[in-house]
Specification:
Helix content is 36%, strand content 18%. The chain is α+β, with helices and mostly antiparallel strands and 131 residues long. The chain has a single domain, classed as Ribosomal Protein S5, domain 2. Helix 2 packs across helix 3. The protein is globular. One of its GO terms (biological process) is tRNA 5'-leader removal.
Length: 131
Amino acid sequence: MVRRADFLAANRGRRAPMPGFVLLVRERGDGDPAMRYGITVTKKIGGAVIRNRMKRRFRVLARELLPTLGIAGADHVLIAREGGIERDFALLRGELEKALGKIMTRPVDAPRDPSRRKAKSSGTRAPAKSR
């Protein structure tokens, strides 16, 4: 996946947060059984060398596990989290297997619980308490 619109669409799908990454999965519904994957590693994670190392690790994991555990006809996005680069590769593999299992048990395109969303601020603050 390379188009921004595909990443934004995946963000509206199911998610499985793990300590080293967040997995997003969204079925495309276009009839194409091909699985696609995308990787996002922001500058918050580290410099270019660190980000590239993390992307290489994610690429290997995706190529190993998605053909057998992924959802056909879906987009899979791995978003790196801080501390993911320090995690052992075998641990990351186990977390991705667990995340894919979580995704498979959730209903397709289930709406997220709106009560868990943070309320947007109206822009006005309550007056400060005086002591």
